[in-house]
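Instructor's aside before we start: the two examples that follow are unrelated to each other. I chose them only because their records fit on one page, so don't look for a connection. First example below.
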Amino acid sequence: MGRVQDKVVLITGAARGQGRSHAVKLAEEGADVILFDICHDIDTNKYPLATPHELTEAGLEVEKTGRRAVTAEVDVRDRSALTRELANAVAELGGSLDVVVANAGICPLGADVPIGAFADAFDVDFVGVVNTVHSALPYLKSGASIITTGSIAGLVAASQPAAGGPLGPGGAGYSFAKQLVDSYTRTLAAQLAPMSIRANVIHPTNCNTGMLNSDPMYKQFRPDLEHPTRDDALLAFPAMQAMPVPYVEPEDISQVVCFLASDESRYVTGSRFRVDAGAMLKF
């Protein structure tokens, strides 16, 4: 316990899924947490996003550990809102910020979604990361840590470019955004290294969250069925990984986030961390 004792952490996409898991894990290890989430749906994204109630619950989970939580409904595409709400949250928690976890993301899959899905995926998954990090930079000092969320899907797409198909424009936007998150994070790390500020990217494979457990994702994994269910998709999920599992859990990603947020990783920067059950070994 106490691996990030008294650090202040910003997490986007914190109301549920990976972000909520990260918030609770870091609070259990001694951090105060700023939790941001959009808390409303995006039209091109055909599964529901987090709700205000879920964000409130996530904040209460942090507070149950004895640490402080500040929550706000923030769309990471809106730099001015990020800047404003972050300033308020940092002031409430004493004026410092030590860790940034740029985690918010969507995946608007489907060949039938409009071209706007490309823009929405790109804007949330890449521009949102940039907005989050750049809003936080003025507060970061020596020893701070920036952690971004990429995706194995982005690494696979970069090594084996594929066109069109059932991914649709939203899937293409997602994959391209995650590729850019990877290169952006490593380039940023080089710029921040002289200030002893670290930046690393985590690439999960299938993760047991609302994004994976959604009708568009079921259809992606079971295109042979008109209306596949989760049980149908579970038969196909393991094909993504070399290890015989359908997915990893949010807590598996949180373990790496905690390491990168802590001083245990004080000399680790510009690195990729693949939590992928061997998925990249298959590509």
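Example two begins here.
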Amino acid sequence: MPDHRLPPLNAVRAFDAAARLGSYVEASKALHVTQPAIGRHVKLLEEWLGTQLFERTSRGVTLTSAGEKYHHKIASALQLIIEAGRELQPKTSERWLRIMVVPGFAKRWLTPRLEAARRLRPGLKFAIEPNSTFTDVDGKTADLGIVYGLDGEYAHSRATLFCPQVFPICTPGYLASIEPITQLADLLKHNLIHFDGEWWNTWFAANGLDVHLTSDVLYVNNDHALSVAESGQGIALANEVLVREELKAGTLVRVLEDQVKLESYRVLTPSAELSADAQWFIQWLTTELGREFSD
């Protein structure tokens, strides 16, 4: 007889978030639960299925072959559930703007300003989804996307918002505990925090120093790397959008004055025509970033 039992749905939801974001930490933030709770849900689902879904590493989690197959199917099923509910919900005057955003920008710049944006656009509501790996938006799961990268990486890059300066930062305590850093090469003597295998190499090259660094630990996104630096564990690269407030408060300091512009924040849009609210939001983003970083 076929088994018609459903798996524990909270566990499926936790697994889906961890699979999409590549990290229990980021999944916990997206679902507003603790990291151990994500781990318990995934373990429960693995026991229910009788197979391992993730490989756990120091860098986060990666799907096993079984996990990839399972996620492909349950992601489609979850989207069908979302769409079925949306079709049955009574049509109201509520206006939602669903925005997929790289985590650092979502947490450190956008979220603190959403209430001010909402007051400027009465009736508009926001649904924010931090996501480290997306390269487009389809208009179904998100109306807009905000990414940080090069233009050629994205199929539907609607607008370039801002290209910030990138420079090394750490805590005052960490800087006081190490040998003085007076030039680029001095950085190589210290613990450099990596979120991408080439990010430091690219930054050094743009500043005229050819190096080929590797790391045994890579973090899932720049926000995670900055959090590690904020805990006093080393030096990370940051852009001025992500750490402006921390630099003002003195909780982080610049290690050197060397800086360079590498990539830009960009808005991704679906192929369909944008709503008036989406067009307004893009203009608001452009204006606010230009106002704050015009100097």
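The chain has a mean pLDDT of 88.
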